């Protein structure tokens, strides 16, 4: 009986809880050769923690400061699987890291070269023909043997295709 009651605390609810994460010093993580670190002040990496709510975290968020409850439908895409959600979150984190690196290099007076590698698949509609060959996390590097220099070129090419026209993707 006790285990049956305890189990209920860990059942996921259709909500997510957002709360403050950590504020870690960046100095051990970021260095720029030829540029001494600024001894005045400290740069910190600030994080936000978010996770699917259970009854315990939901109730805690109701009474604790700086915690917010979000509907699952406001956080996840329609019919988005756990894998697709995780891939999307990792993609957003990588974009954020890359943006921070670019800003840091530019602030240090260094040049930045951006190399386009392809388009990451964040989700695949289950009834789409591509669902048999693509999955969240795949990197498409070419279509029909054609490589692209930017996402805009990739999108323009895909838009130029007729509905139902077949394509070959290189992963």
Automatic annotation (TrEMBL):
Q: Which SUPFAM superfamilies match?
A: PDZ domain-like
Superkingdom of origin: Bacteria
Question: Which InterPro entries would you find in this protein's record?
Answer: PDZ (IPR001478), PDZ_sf (IPR036034)
Q: Where is the PDZ domain?
A: 89-150
Q: Which PROSITE patterns match?
A: PDZ (PS50106)
- Protein name (record): PDZ domain-containing protein
